[in-house]
Amino acid sequence: MRYVLAATMDPAALAVLPRCFTPDIDLELSRSTAGMKSRLAARAHDIALVDMDILCGGTTTDYETIRQAVHGFRQQHPSVDLIVLARADAIRQAVDAVRAGAGNYLTYPLHPEEVRLVTQKLHESALVRSELDYLRDRLIQGRSGGDEGIVLDTRSPRMREVYDKIRLVAATRSTVLLTGETGTGKSLIARLIHSHSNRHGKRFISVHCGAIPEALVESELFGHEKGAFTGAIRKKPGRFEIAEGGTIFLDEIGTIGPSVQIKLLNVLQDRCFQRVGGETVIRPDVRVVAATNEDLSTLCAQGRFRRDLYYRLNVFPIDIPPLRERKEDILQLAEAFVRRCNPQRSRDIRAIHPDVIDAFMRYDWPGNVRELENIIERACILEGGEVLSPEAFPAEFRGLPHAVRNRALDISLPLEAARRHALDSFEREYLERALATSGGSIKGAAAIAGVTTRQIHKLMTRHSLKKEDFKPGSGRLKK
């Protein structure tokens, strides 16, 4: 971050802003829309802090006007990260601006620590986006389409770790084992590994081992000779031969039987196999990526999976986190699925209702990303307007935000005091739920909330909460 522009008519903000940045940051100040535009045209800025009235050309509460203003700014200055400045009584409009594409918002009066924190976080996010753009460009080469781009957009630290591992292993020949619950996107990750490797110009062959009858798995993988068994009327090459020079993805690897396990072990160990009923030794040049939603080490202990095969598969393990542990990605994924559904279903859906988003964040997503995709597709079919409303979703989603809307409000308090009271209540309830879910673990609660353990300690002190009250067996009810 080198060049920052601040456009505001607030005298106090103009006085505070120079104290918000270190001397190496070149800060420019503007008091009008015309001044902002001329400065943006004269130099490429990294971040622009812009007053809502300057951005929109006057005071407004209309979402469409705000959306057009933000989109217009981003079209003219795509490389500039936008932070909107708003009055304390205009938070709703500031949130609308963020929904429309602004990076974040700040409210008056400005505080140096808050300005520094928000701008630094936005700058760090821009660096991550640049890194992901680079990765996406590399992965897209040789790809004919599909969903790979959807999983690349992430704000989740755990998913960023997954992408780091992809970058490390993709260019090698090492066998990769993908683990994770059903619906987390293991097949898409396998395609990313292939696309990012030097095999991207060759075939990617996907085999769902659990969907093939056990008696046919060996033939499907390794092929068979004519007459090898009843019905084998001609020679058939297996998937390993078809994938020559490329990647074979073995999904649900834990379902294969003992005989196939032995043959697969030979392929991984000796790099050769024979077709069923054949004698010719075939030496394939194939990269193996396997996936499972079961714990293979447990299967080994139960005698259902060969331990030596497990070790051969588990050369480079990558665990894909469930959606409930990466909720910061839910909105981006949902919007991506909406954009994909629009042309497929002849729809023009432009936004998702805030109550739906709130319900999404409260739901545990047992079906993970696949469940989210299916629910979005269903809602797009049912929705007749431009905003995905709660009525287009199953009853369990409509019920969640209802409780939020019906929260008791004390209108005897001034608006600002009532807002602080509501935020304090929400913060305490959220913290209690996080601590209850983590069993009183500070580190676990911090991971759920996406903050540091130090911040969790401060919040617990503020709300007079003790971790011992949330330990298993403490007698405290989980909310």
From TrEMBL:
Q: Does the keyword DNA-binding apply?
A: yes
Please name the GO terms that the record assigns under molecular function: ATP binding; DNA binding
GO biological process terms held by the UniProt record: regulation of DNA-templated transcription
Sorted keywords for this record are: ATP-binding, DNA-binding, Nucleotide-binding, Transcription, Transcription regulation
What the entry lists under InterPro entries is as follows:
AAA+_ATPase, AAA_lid_NorR, CheY-like_superfamily, Homeodomain-like_sf, P-loop_NTPase, Sigma_54_int, Sigma_54_int_dom_ATP-bd_1, Sigma_54_int_dom_ATP-bd_2
Q: Which SUPFAM superfamilies match?
A: CheY-like (SSF52172), Homeodomain-like (SSF46689), P-loop containing nucleoside triphosphate hydrolases (SSF52540)
Which part of the chain is the Sigma-54 factor interaction domain?
A: 152-381
| Name of the protein in its database record | Sigma-54 dependent transcriptional regulator
What organism is the protein native to? Nitratidesulfovibrio vulgaris (strain ATCC 29579 / DSM 644 / CCUG 34227 / NCIMB 8303 / VKM B-1760 / Hildenborough) (Desulfovibrio vulgaris)
UniProt lineage:
Bacteria, Pseudomonadati, Thermodesulfobacteriota, Desulfovibrionia, Desulfovibrionales
